[in-house]
Design a protein that fits this description.
This protein has one domain (about 1-110). Helix content is about 85%, strand content about 0%. It has helices spanning about 1-25, 30-55, 60-90, 95-110. It is elongated. The termini are far apart.
Length: about 110
Amino acid sequence: MLVALIAAAAMVVTDVMGVIMVMAEAHNRGWLAGWMDTAQWLVGIVTTTISVTALQGHSFGEKALVVLLVSAANLFGTKLGQVIGRRLVPESMSLPARVAALEAALRKDP
């Protein structure tokens, strides 16, 4: 049980960092994106190592628990990353302003 919880916690951290990385890239925050990518890789190695080790074991219950908890961690870690990322990487323009800018750019293109 402890192995599955550690793997799930590591997966949450990996997903949070991954979502923040993508948000930072989309807002031209290269250094933040780079740091998140680096940190995400390090935590991802831990997640993979723990998960693969558990899946190679003989306990079907532990295997199922790792798969279930890491899968749930993927879902909730991504949402948590979006919530945290919204605070770290604020929108530079509102949605209506972005749509207006896109429409203006499209009108200029022949």
